[in-house]
Design brief:
Blueprint lengths: L2 H6 L11 E3 L10 E6 L7 E7 L1 H7 L7 E4 L4 E2 L1 E4 L4 E3 L3 E11 L3 E7 L7 E10 L3 E10 L6 E11 L7 E2 L1 E7 L3 E6 L6 E9 L2 E3 L4 E2 L4 E3 L6 E6 L8 E7 L5 E10 L6 E13 L2 E5 L1 E7 L3 E7 L10 E6 L2 E7 L5 E5 L11 H4 L2 H5 L2 E5 L3 E3 L8 H4 L1 H25 L1
Parallel strand pairs: 1-31, 3-30
Antiparallel strand pairs: 2-29, 2-30, 2-31, 3-28, 4-5, 4-29, 6-28, 7-17, 8-9, 8-16, 9-15, 10-14, 10-16, 11-12, 11-15, 12-13, 18-27, 19-20, 20-26, 21-25, 21-27, 22-23, 22-26, 23-24
Length: about 425
């Protein structure tokens, strides 16, 4: 169980045992389960948000289509199902690559011209190629005249590891700039690189809503120059969106790979990144997280490439998930419950979602979900024939038998 589940569902361990039976208003007898929303009483109307545990999503089977919020009188309450994923906004625009050159044994260099009156920019996307896969670093410098340069990034990691199934990452961010020229140096003199194109953008990043899990990891079988951990329990109920290496030292720079498996034997790479803490021109820069496409998997494996350095001491991987929240307006003196488990329910469309500011939704007062109860008056919404398929098949078999007898009699009397 993750810390997300523990924090969101005090007493929700009832899901692991036999849930209690309770009746909900008859208008909702097609919903199989309910759980009260535990929240402090309100003196004025306010938004509240309750984290929905993975166990409820799994029990629902059709979340959030069959989710409903009702009050103590059985009245339906509009809500928003909120999943706040990280988003990066900004339009990329092509720029001109000038003077590609190579300093043998030192670096490959290209000057980028953004044009006169260039708007603000803080990211560059490189069209960078080499012989085969690569993992290297680039330096980013700026200039007003393409003669006098000021470095903004000393060592930004870039890679193309598609043949290893780890994709490519050729975007580099740097502090906001209005300079017309950028200089890119690929800091690897052991092989040739080609910078054949580039785009720049001014990016704005909205941080995702993340909660740490308590998924435990254990060291995997030792491999030369690698430090590897494997998760020790099934965590397939979690939507993992980030892996962090915590407890890192003051200065380090290591590649990290993340793999998943459903059976603990066959592994598939899902992300690759660089973790580091270093000082660049007097400014400390650090990265300890590897972002991944939201993924559910039973087993996780995290590997640090130590190269020729000693393994990092005292570090550990931690999985982070994006929680699902149900957000609604709490009125003074009213009590609420989440109901779910209706195979025929359709997704709701409340104007509440369009009339409520996203920042207000994200700032909703935290609530938690209480112990699950089975609806004592539950009535399966499926048609009678779907609920009794044996009778239908028996009738069909009887019809075939009767038709066969009729055909046989016709042949005998014909």
């Amino acid at each position: 169980m993750t810390r997300l589940r523990a924090a969101a569902v005090v007493g929700f361990a009832a899901l692991a045992s036999a849930p209690v039976a309770a009746a909900i208003p008859s208008a909702w007898n097609h919903w199989h389960y309910s759980a009260p929303v535990d929240v402090e009483p309100a003196t004025t109307a306010r938004l509240v948000g309750v984290v929905v545990p993975p166990a409820v999503i799994e029990r629902s089977g059709r979340a959030p289509d069959d989710f409903r919020v009702i009050d103590e009188a059985g009245r339906e309450v509009p809500f928003v199902f909120r999943v706040r994923r990280g988003v990066t906004e900004g339009a990329w625009r092509p720029v001109t690559v000038l003077e590609p050159s190579v300093a043998p044994g030192a670096y490959t260099q290209a000057t980028i011209d953004l044009g006169p009156g260039a708007p603000a920019h803080n990211a560059i996307r490189l069209d960078l190629t080499s012989r085969g896969d690569f993992l290297t670093w680039v330096e980013v410098a700026i200039s007003e005249d393409a003669a006098s340069w000021r470095t903004l990034r000393d060592r930004a990691p870039v890679y193309d590891l598609r043949s290893e199934g780890m994709g490519r990452a050729l975007d580099v961010t740097y502090p906001d700039s209005l300079s017309r020229y950028l200089r890119i140096r690929v800091l690897d003199g052991t092989r040739p690189y080609r910078v054949t194109g580039a785009e720049v953008a001014s990016l704005r990043t909205v941080a995702p809503d993340l909660v740490a899990t308590d998924a435990a990891f254990a060291p995997d079988a030792p491999r030369p120059h690698k430090t590897t951990w494997v998760s020790t329990a099934d965590v397939s109920g979690d939507w993992v969106t980030e892996v962090r290496v915590e407890g890192t030292p003051d200065a380090f720079d290591r590649p990290v790979s993340v793999e998943v498996s459903q059976d603990g034997r066959a592994w598939q790479a899902v992300a690759y990144g660089e973790i580091f803490r270093r000082t660049e021109r007097g400014v400390v820069r650090a990265a300890s997280a590897v972002r991944i496409p939201e993924t559910q998997a039973a087993h996780w494996r995290v590997t640090i490439d130590d190269r020729n350095d000693a393994p990092l001491a005292g570090v550990r991987p931690v999985l982070y998930v994006t929680p699902r929240r149900v957000v609604f307006r709490q009125e003074p003196g009213r009590r609420y419950a989440l109901i779910y488990g209706n195979a025929k329910a359709t997704r709701t469309d409340y104007e509440f979602a369009r009339l409520t500011d996203a920042d207000a939704i994200d700032g909703a007062t935290p609530a938690r979900l209480g112990a699950e109860a089975v609806n004592a008056a539950y009535a399966d919404p499926a048609p009678w024939t779907e609920r009794h398929p044996v009778v239908l098949w028996a009738a069909l078999g009887l019809a075939v038998l009767v038709l066969g007898l009729i055909a046989l009699r016709t042949l005998r009397t014909g």
